[in-house]
Amino acid sequence: MATIFCDTDSELYYTYANKYNVEVIRMPYILDGEEKLADLGETFDPKAFFGKMRAGAAASTAGLNEETYYEIFKPFFEKGDDILYIAFSSKMSKTFDYLEIAINRLKTEYPNVKYRRFDTLNICLGTGILVYLGAKYCREHGDDIDATYDYLESVRDRVGIYFTVENMKYLARGGRISPAKAKIGNLMNIKPVLTVIDGKLDVCAKKTGLPLAVNFMMKTFEERYDPAFDGPVIILDADNAQVADDMAARVRENYPNADIWRYAIGPVVGVHAGPGTVGIIYIAK
């Protein structure tokens, strides 16, 4: 049997990870000085978390060190199973530098184990949708991690991911934009529509006000969405349920057979996007 790994930056809900027997690497986040590990929604309270952020609580994230990665993967190298790690974009974190050191140690100790890491070049449920599709494919195709890797490569560039934020100060805190741009943008009620290109965040549009930003995302979805592909349409929010529910209703009206997932954004991604964020993720034509 192959062992499939994902990390909590994928935001895939824990029930799907459990269904396909996916091992989860829990990434840390800090809220008001207390470090916790994200758990794919199993115990996370988004209303409380984003409420604290709105009230001014300090929030940040952290990577994992070499020894932590070594201890996570060692039992699975000892078992001798094939290992496939479907990971968030390596261009968004230095944590993979430490992962590689740990994996190289383990490869030296267990040279007969096949280990592969698939870089989704994405984040949040842009990664999560590939974890879901990859795990499903792997379990349905004899746990062949090479075939699964090839399948994921054929789908990776078709992931559509768009989101907009309520307050740009959180993007500035994470170094995504400058504090000056965030301040000016907030004063002018500019809502950037962000996507992921080649593993990095990119601004694809700037709209005045949330309704125009959401309408841009939905029109882009309607132009690009592939209803023939057997995959979900994921709509998520960070304590902005009404807007996200309206987005889901629009998808349902135009595509009544779509498999719609309504998610709350988790803490690791939520720290950088901030409360009020809404987004949509799907497989494009």
Which fold name is given in CATH as the topology of the largest domain?
Hypothetical Protein Tm841, Chain: A,domain 3
Main beta sheet: strand number and arrangement? 6 strands, mixed
CATH class of the largest domain: Alpha Beta
**Ends apart, CA distance between termini:** 33 Å
Average pLDDT score: 95
CATH architecture of the largest domain: 2-Layer Sandwich
Helix vs. strand class: alpha/beta
Query: What's the count of strands?
Result: 13
Radius of gyration: 19 Å
How many separate domains make up the residues? 2
Tell me the overall shape: globular
Task: Tell me what you see in this structure.
By secondary structure, this protein is α/β, with parallel strands linked by helices. It folds into two domains: 3-27 and 63-156, 3-Layer(aba) Sandwich (Rossmann fold); 159-283, Hypothetical Protein Tm841, Chain: A,domain 3. It is built from eleven helices and 13 strands. It has helices at residues 14-19, 46-54, 66-79, 95-109, 125-140, 145-156, 169-173, 179-187, 210-224, 241-254, 267-273; strands at 3-7, 22-25, 28-31, 34-37, 59-61, 83-87, 115-119, 159-164, 190-197, 200-208, 233-237, 260-264, 278-283. It has a six-stranded mixed β-sheet, sandwiched between helices. A four-stranded parallel β-sheet has the order 2-1-6-7, with helices on both faces. Helix 3 runs parallel beside helix 4 and helix 5 (125-140) runs antiparallel to helix 6. The longest helix is centred in the middle third of the chain and has 16 residues, at 125-140.
